[in-house]
Amino acid sequence: MLKVENIKKSFGDNQVLQGVDIEVNKGDIVVILGPSGSGKTTLLRCLNFLEKADQGTMTFDDINTRLHGASKQVIAKVRKKTAFVFQNYNLFQNKTALQNVMEGLVIARKVPKAEAKERAKKALDKVGLADRYDYYPSQLSGGQQQRVGIARAIAVNPDVLIFDEPTSALDPELIGEVLAVMKKLANEGATMIIVTHEMTFAQEVASKVVFMDGGVIVEQGSAKQIFTAPKEERTAQFLRRVLKDYDYVI
Amino acid sequence: MNLDLQFMAETFIDVLHGIPVTFQIVIVTLLVSAPLGFLMTVTKLGDGRIGRRAAAAYVSFVRGTPVVLQILFLYSLLPTLLNYLIKEVCGLSYNIFTVNPILYAYVVFILNTTAVLSEVFRSALLTVNKGQMEAALSIGMNRFQAYVRIIIPQALTAALPNICNTTVNLLKSTSLAFMMTVKDVTAIAKIDASFGYNYLEAYLVIFFIYILLCSLVQGVFHLTERAAAAYKKPASVRNARRVFS
Amino acid sequence: MRPFHPQYILETLPQLLPFLPVTAAIVVGTVFFGSLLGALLAAGKIRKGKVGQFLANLYIYVIRCIPSIVLLFLVYYGLPELLNAFGIDINDADKAFFVITTFSLLFAATMAEVFRSAYEAVDRGQREAAVSVGLTEFQAFYRIVLPQCIRVAIPNFTNALVNLMKEGSLAYTIGLIDIMGKGQLIIGQNQSSYSLEVYLALFILYWVLTVLIEKGAALWERGLYRELKKGV
């Protein structure tokens, strides 16, 4: 469904992505792991054209495009097939929860208002915020805000949902509610690309795990293979470190 | 110290007639300067180097020189220049010297306020988190839609206190319009005072008038700010109000 | 249309420059007295006392609403009469006295806000941390809190200074001869025939002064910043 090849991106002298290929099929839950600064977030942002890659090609259903120099129409088309959940939620501060979710439907996709409202309510109900339609972001907890962020993303019925560290800005006690929503979506067959540091969650939901370091994909495979029998020493090292951190936290 | 109270009462009544003129200058100036200022902000934040430089130089000049000097300069330049253009260049016989001097006041204050507002708008736009634009793009809006629906409403809320400041300063600057023979609040007080050398009384009267006018402006902005910032209120306040209403 | 002589701008500048010290003296005098009063007002606002807070806020509110020229006229015509009531005669006082008085009253309100916001911008923990490692209250204030306050205050202070210099040009309306007043004199002597050129010369002077003040402040700020960094 979505295939991206040879993405390269640098900021000044810093080569953040040094030729990355990634393929996502319908129903896949791709979890991208890696130490900070390994280029995971930049990769996601390039997929949604929030960052313009220096090089690379994308095949997305019937769309075929280069990542740099894609036309406005193509970018708009890709953005309508994807939805992005941000690390710091990025809810529209001047809109209520319901308006946040409706915005992409009414303005970007020209869905009639009444229908958009129904769909937005359904999305908010799904993330467990049926009682928070009229709250502004500043009136919601971080976990609630991120759930609105997820509702905003799923309301537009995207082909692919992209999550950029959706829980790393949250207090530990709020992480669970967001992960629970994501797990529910995974079970319903949504296609997702997720960057996260939540290892237990990754093991549970991932159909494919990608390990990145230093701007390249070091290794990829099933969750079971990566977590129990990594082929590369770098992967094993990373997992030992983070899983140890986990023990420490507990 | 003897104050001529009867004179003060009479002057007060006289000066009230100047308030519409004062407000007329303030309102016309704001209405014209706001779009011009926004255009200038866009130029400043845009990619054109020449435009950016020119806008920066303009703002630096306007903010680096006294308003009174701008008034004196334009008031000695504009009438003769316009007269020359109309008579010699266009060959018309319109007498520019009969034109209402408030027009010159508009020109001076618009030139000035445009520069100030362009800075106000710029800093307001910069306060809006970059993520807001990204989120808007990510759900499929184009940049124009994002600006109109998400960025500008938030920027405007952030800008309101500064726009209020700008308006108060503009209101105060209009007190110099008498130099262009505009019959505003200050001009009327000066004329009244000059008959019997009652300057102290006359200025005391407009001292209070300006406090009133300024309070009015701030009151209006205060209400607007409250309405515009509804989305910033913490939940507890909002819910509390719901309970009581 | 009357002829325009750009060279007259250059001829005017040397005639204006001798009066730059007057303009500067007004600014310096105002900064001194205005800051003193401003510090007092800021103290009134920061402290818990209800009366002090009310008076300081009232003062700042009123001053914020008054056009400089109105206050200038009010002081010029009103202060002699007010002091006369106490038996003090200042009718022969220098024009500069009225100008500095007026602008000190105005500047104080601005400075009060500058001081207050600078004071509040520095985290309380800074003083506590300084005292906790054994500095005295005075040392904590002088070595830790004050330098940070100054850094916060520089941009606002610079703004206030530039505004003061620009507003100061109104002093010519009561007959003070600073650069603006001298410019008006030159125009008067020539029956207004060179007014545009004189105004342009004044524009240049004021613009250069503003840019100098702003550049100076930027250098000062950078210097302080470097010092802070070195300290770390």
Short description:
The complex is a heterotrimer of chains A (250), B (245) and C (232). Chain B is mainly α and 245 residues long. Chain B has ten helices and no strands.
Give keywords.
heterotrimer, B: MetI-like fold, C: mainly alpha, MetI-like fold, 81% helix, flat
Any overview of this molecule?
The complex is a heterotrimer of chains A (about 250), B (about 240) and C (about 230). With about 250 residues, chain A is α/β, with parallel strands linked by helices. Helix content of chain A is about 40%, strand content about 25%. Chain A has helices at about 40-45, 70-80, 95-110, 115-125, 140-155, 170-185, 200-205, 225-230, 235-250, and strands at about 1-10, 15-25, 30-35, 55-60, 65, 80-85, 160-165, 190-195, 210-215, 215-220. In chain A, α3 (about 95-110) packs parallel to α5 (about 140-155) and α5 runs parallel beside α6 (about 170-185). Chain A is globular. Chain B has a single domain (about 5-245), classed as MetI-like fold, CATH 1.10.3720. Chain C is mainly α. Chain C has one domain: MetI-like fold (Orthogonal Bundle), CATH 1.10.3720. The chains are: A alpha/beta (about 250), B mainly alpha (about 240), C mainly alpha (about 230). Chains in contact: A-B, B-C. Chains A and B meet through α2, β6 and α3 of A and α6 and α7 of B.
